[in-house]
Amino acid sequence: MNKTLRVNTYLGVAAIAIAAMASSCATKKTTADRTLTLKTTTTQGGSTAVATIGAGKKEGIKKFSDLVGKTKADTGLFNTYKIDGKYYFEIPDSLISREMLVVTRFVKTPAGLKSFGQQYGGEEVNNQVWKWERHDKQVFIRVPSYSVKADSTSDMYQSVKNSNLDAILASFDVKAYNKDTTGVLVDVTDLYNGDLAAIGLPDNIKKMYKITGLDNGRSYIDTVKSFPINIETRTLKTYRASESPTDNTNGALTFELNTSMLLLPKTPMKARLNDDRVGYFGQQQTDYGTGAQKAEATAYIHRWKLEPKDEAAYARGELVEPKKQIVYYIDPATPKKWVPYLIAGINDWNKAFEAAGFKNAIVGKEAPTAKQDPEFSTEDARYSVVRYFASDVQNAYGPHISDPRTGEILESHVGWYHNVMMLLRNWFFIQTAAVNPHVRMAKFTDAQMGELIRFVSSHEIGHTLGLPHNFGSSYAYPVDSLRSKSFTDKHGTAPSIMDYARFNYIAQPGDGVTHLYPQIGEYDLWSVKWGYSYFPGKKTAQQEKEMLDVWTKERAGNPLYYYGRQGTSIDPRLQNEDLGDNAMKASTYGIANLKRILPNIEKWTFQKGEEYDDLVTLYNEVIGQYNRYIGHVTMNIGGMSENFKTYDQKGAVYSFIGKNLQHDAVTFLNQQVFTTPKWLINADELSKFDNGVVISRIKAVQVNAVANVLNASRLARMFDNQSKNGAKAYTVTELFTDLRSGIFASGVPDEFKRNLQRGYIDRLKSLLNEDASFSFPGATAAQLANMGLTPINIALSDIRPMVRAELAKITTSLPKGGDALTSAHYTDLRLRIKEALYPTRPVVNINSGSPVGRFTDGTMQQNNGCWPATTF
């Protein structure tokens, strides 16, 4: 279980797609007397690489005193010098070949950039590991790879070393030897001034704004500052661009960036092996030094290095402070009223670290002022910071940067977008206003918003501690428990704040529930205990794993400690925004509350003198929440539970959802969706903003639900279930029968039901005549299945025979007569079914593939060597 990192497999697929989009950057031109020339190229995999293509005119090695003169060194990791507008690093022999993490962040960016996630000061541009090496009279920067490894004591070590040569990123001539010849001086001006991919603008922004290259005349190095374990270099770079986001007359975009070069520990932290049963972000390497009879994929988790100050007290079970506390600083640009809540969200994690034996392990602090610490910078890689962005993006995120050798988390910059408050306000209102009179207003109080900010702060800090989303956590609590005041006061809404278990939409008026938030819970304490507990002595990672396995198996089967990964649509437990252990029951309660909220939106959010923008927003939020409930229920149909296990654990890893639950899901859809949700038609409120589209709104909800149910991957799993479990399975035949009973219920269909029936026929037609393959560049069938996109060759499967049979049953059951509109509707349905069964398709020449005419399936006639175009 520890040897393959299955967590977030879908992210690997996304990474493949992102890499495929990368493009080459413009060539960096230099003058003849410069000693460093850089050229960017595009590798076979699509990523940008940089290499030297030749040195300029040789200037020879000077005496240190002649070159430096009386220039005062900025002492630190490397002594740095600014001489006649050029910047020099004095690289000591003791740091040659030491690994250094290089992190580049934006400091300031132009207005109007739309590249989400890379557009604000403080956000990461790139990170890379460098090693400075000397060879004769030159110094090189090498970029090591950590994808393949073998321990130095292993017989495979030399073989791995021979096939894992570190790339050279840049080269420099030695300008001088220092006074005692224990180091060399190199000119790094062109390195930091250049358009180097590792420390410059990312390719996606270059492509977006048609950037052709760096304008050296409008670019410069602002400052270079050296500290004991890092060097901070701030640059201003102006790029020639033909599509500025705000003003094309400039023909350019200007960015301010900060590059941190941070010395990695000489002795790496001991890595902790990954376990799919406990959620952690991690990294994977191919390890040839394990002694196995194959190349093993070894995965390590990401975590901070915590060691007790007093090992003896720790061993006695006492809470002990760590040698080095985890510290997060709040961006000075943060509005003052929100700072205490952000800090509280950080400090809340001390409860979880106590489960691992540490006290005061983590703390949030206000950033020091310039007077308190003139050297402090929010871009400095030594500091973790909650960065506040003046942005209309409704989000926040918690990244971290880790040592690629071991997974040790070194720092984090949490991204906090100002408009996340809008998201919180809308969701908290829509999910709780039925039972929470304190949110029945246009604008929340600062105290109310502050508590919501605290919740999000805790969630995002969890990510920076190495914890991914645990989408399976909320399933642990029974639905009815979330209607209990005593239960929710103690437990919140889920055992993990890392779930997307938002606010308590299940509690009903009269239940008395007032604690409506998620909080750090039982699973969070367990996952931190698993990842951060300290094991004294010289135990290997494998020995620690064996001890951790005992803990994990002790908790196996207890839903409080269940980890459900993000990135699959197989398991109905693993959904975002859901609550409780039964989606049908929870969603019924949720819809009941939406029915209470919708008629009161205008009254509860009344704003004198304002237009109805807020009413429109919240009405759409109601529809969005309703759609979430529908999605939660639908995933039960054709669903499978996923419980990762090891050989010494009994039971299935994958098992199908029970027949009764799947049937209940379709019954819910028939009652709550396919029976027209006329409660959404509030004529008084709709008259304020709806200009004749309510039928389309409801049609979209219903038809999308049909398409989701009749998803080819879902049907493929249902056939698979039937082949394995026979009569115990909920079959496609039963699904069609149940859907037909709701969609074609007796009675004269109104305009909504007519739309729904046409949508159902069109979806069946699509299954019968259109390709249903999935296209994700670089993804294997196994990876697609792991995401829930169960592969199926629809043309050869049982789907099309079953669809034909279903269309035939609908044809024979359609009534005749009725008023003019109803009669026309049934005539139209029969024609749609006929077109589905006998579609008119383009005919292609079997030799050239060119269309040459039309013909109807069913005749199967050949026309000058032409056959129907393939549909699979």
Automatic annotation (TrEMBL):
Keywords: Signal. Residues 1-22 form the signal peptide. Residues 443-745 form the EcxA zinc-binding domain. CDD domains: ZnMc_MMP_like_2. Residues 61-109 form the DUF5118 domain. Residues 122-309 form the DUF5117 domain. PROSITE patterns: PROKAR_LIPOPROTEIN. It comes from the Bacteria. Pfam families: DUF4953, DUF5117, DUF5118. PANTHER family: PEPTIDASE M1A AND M12B, ZINC DEPENDENT METALLOPROTEASE DOMAIN LIPOPROTEIN. This is DUF5117 domain-containing protein. It comes from Mucilaginibacter phyllosphaerae.
